[in-house]
Design brief:
Layout lengths: L9 H13 L10 E5 L5 E6 L30 H8 L8 E6 L3 H10 L3 E6 L6 H12 L3 E4 L3 H9 L5
Parallel strand pairs: 3-4, 4-5
Antiparallel strand pairs: 1-2, 1-3
Helix pairs in contact: 3-4
């Protein structure tokens, strides 16, 4: 018997895990998920954007506009940092899968933690100064950047006949 065609690539598979993790986010506007995977294709950690442990989702603002203390930006931990902090083992040499390109603050944590490759999907803030700074640091530090597009849509289309 021939093997099944249209099997998910590793990048599609782990980006799917990042998207699944994003579904845990309670942010009403932007849900971001991340997965950290080692060289043996083993999941080391996952994360999503949300408030720190012990900070109630009902007591902190999800607003995008207003004074700094009235918006989510002063409080939310990004998916990438959550995944790094949630890891029970070192992430040195690992690949980070993330649904949205990392900001400059997350880039610092990614570099310092030793992650060597980032696979991302959306780059909707590519023209912002913080994303330009992020890319500058990541490239300078030798972190490989790999963009894959529309993994959810592509995966569904690629595999729509599998479960019939």
């Amino acid at each position: 018997m021939d093997q099944r065609e249209n099997v998910l690539s590793w990048d599609e598979y782990f980006m799917g895990l990042a998207h699944l993790s994003a579904l845990r986010s309670k942010d009403p506007n932007t849900q971001v998920g991340a997965a950290i995977v080692d060289e043996n294709h083993r999941v080391v950690s996952v994360g999503y954007n949300g408030f720190p442990k012990g900070c109630s989702d009902d007591e902190y603002p999800w607003n995008r506009e207003g004074g700094v203390l009235d918006t989510k930006y002063a409080y939310v931990v990004h998916a990438e940092l959550n995944a790094i902090l949630n890891s029970k083992s070192p992430v040195t040499g690992c690949t980070l899968y993330v649904s949205l390109f990392p900001c400059n603050e997350c880039a610092k944590a990614i570099i310092q933690s030793g992650i060597r490759r980032i696979v991302y999907e959306s780059d909707k803030y590519a023209d912002t100064e913080t994303t330009v700074a992020s890319k500058r640091m990541l490239v300078s530090a030798g972190v490989e950047l790999c963009r894959i597009e529309n993994t959810i849509k592509l995966t569904v289309e690629k595999h729509k006949n599998v479960y019939r």
